[in-house]
Amino acid sequence: MRAAPLTTVTVAGESDVFAMRQVGREVAAALGMSQQDQIRVATALSELGREIVIEGASGMVVAFALDLDDLVMEVSFPDAAARHVAEGVTMAGRLMDVVDAGERGRVVLRKRLPASASALSVAQIRTKVNAMAPSSALDELRQQNHELASTLEAVRQLNAELEETNQGVMALYNQLSAELEETNRGVVALYAELDEKSMQLREASDAKNRFWATVSHELRTPLNSIIGLVRLLTGPGGDPLGEEQARQVELIGSSAETLLTLVSELLDIGKAESGRLDPQFTTVDLVALAERLRMTVGPAQSTDRVTLRVVVPPPPFTMPADEAMLTRILRNLLANSLKFTQEGEVVLEVAHDQAAGETVFTVADTGIGIPAEHLERVFEEFYQVPGPAQTRAKGTGLGLAYARRLAEAMGGTLTLASTPGEGTTAVLRLPYESHDVPVAQRILVADDDENFRAGVRRMLTGFAAHIDEAPDGAAALAAMAAAPPDLALLDLLMPGLDGTAVLQRMADDERLRKVPVIIVTLAQTHRRPERAEAVLGKQGLRRDVLLNAIRQALGSRDE
């Protein structure tokens, strides 16, 4: 649809500029534009006309037309004046919705009509504009003064509204600041309370460990004396005892040995909780160990309806481990299985898992089983599954908790699977890498949790020749600067310099840029940082998962 022409104005001198300004304002008013838009249209036209007149040119023509929802003003002027209207075009661009000055000697201005545009027809608008009486320069100047005064009043009103708004914003800001300050004080108080509670917990834990260590030590001495005296009484050098006396003395000795075992378990659990349970690795003959267990645990069975079977590959079948710890773990597992199995069999099976780099000990029975809701709770100290079986089979509830602590101390894991009424399977996994052939020369463990670092150090035993530790990001960077590792295990949430900042510092350091990093964190993140090779969760971290991730990270950097 073509634009409908409204009127045309020719500018030949200064008086015509005022006339053009008046026409522009009246056309805008007839179309229902606001007073501010009327002023914008008039000002844009007068600026272009002023530039033309100042340059001494004449023959400027402005054609007004209505194009759908736009007022269109096509301004034509002599080519000689084209280079002098740039300032006027710039001003018009600030006032109009569209300014097209692409064609030489022609500028098209567009101003969008308001939603409440005049309902007058094009013919009525033409008649109204044509009937308009021309005004003098003084009249137009008076009109401009009125417009300026009106604009100033609008600006003053706007400033008043802005001032009121600013006061409201400042009041809201002050309120939010006060609330934030109050919240901060509450957070600081909460942190102080948490620090106090943490200190109390540490003191309680230290007191408990001291109690266990002291009591265990004080109990061991008389128990060892009792066991020694029983051996003297029943040994070949003692006076002959009657049958009933011998039975009672042997019962005293058996009870003393049971108490001594319990005391040793309590002491070792205390050491494990304080991170002082350090395994002494030697090469263990698994065939001989399994046979000793079969010989010592088997005769203690209370019924011949249960068979104890041992399945071990033929010798040589060895692994690096603390033999005393391993023996205690397996003895506990076998004793539990035999205690809660009325008929059937208990099987100890030993095998190597080449893919995971672990030795797997499986103790399976056909006993009463453990309900699913108790499978993890049985690893708590002194916890026993409620039921009639506990009445028949006495115990302290320390065996499985003790066994798991020993397994973790050697860098392994202990898990249970069970079906009530069908039996239970305990799986112990321990690393078997040779200490003489480490996979990595140096690994850095950066984490503010000392117990977690100790656990990872045990997992890496035999896998890495040197294991460096750092409690925070700054210490980690210092350790890596002193001796760049083959790989870094990094926690994201550390005090001071966190894991993300450490990754950035490593990226900026030429020596550390190529060191592979594995994130091991409690933070809930599913997005792997750009510099990290993998992200592992701390909760329930298994040694085989950790070592596989390290192997992949080292392999990817070698490619």
TrEMBL record:
Q: Which CDD domains match?
A: HATPase_EvgS-ArcB-TorS-like, HisKA
Positions of modified residues (4-aspartylphosphate) = 491
Response regulatory domain mapped to chain residues: 442-558
GO molecular function terms listed in the Swiss-Prot or TrEMBL record: ATP binding
Q: Which residues form a coiled coil?
A: 138-179
This enzyme catalyses: ATP + protein L-histidine = ADP + protein N-phospho-L-histidine
Species source reads Nonomuraea bangladeshensis
Q: Does the keyword ATP-binding apply?
A: yes
Q: What class of enzyme is it?
A: transferase
Question: According to its UniProt record, where is this protein mainly located?
Answer: membrane
Instruction: Give the subcellular location.
Output: Cell membrane
**Which domain of life does the protein's organism represent?**
Bacteria
Query: Which positions fall inside the Histidine kinase domain?
Result: 214-434
Quote any Pfam family the record assigns.
HisKA
> What are the record keywords, sorted?
ATP-binding, Coiled coil, Kinase, Nucleotide-binding, Phosphoprotein, Transferase, Two-component regulatory system
Instruction: Give the EC number(s) under which this enzyme is classified.
Output: 2.7.13.3
Key word Transmembrane present: no
Q: What name appears for this protein in its UniProt entry?
A: histidine kinase
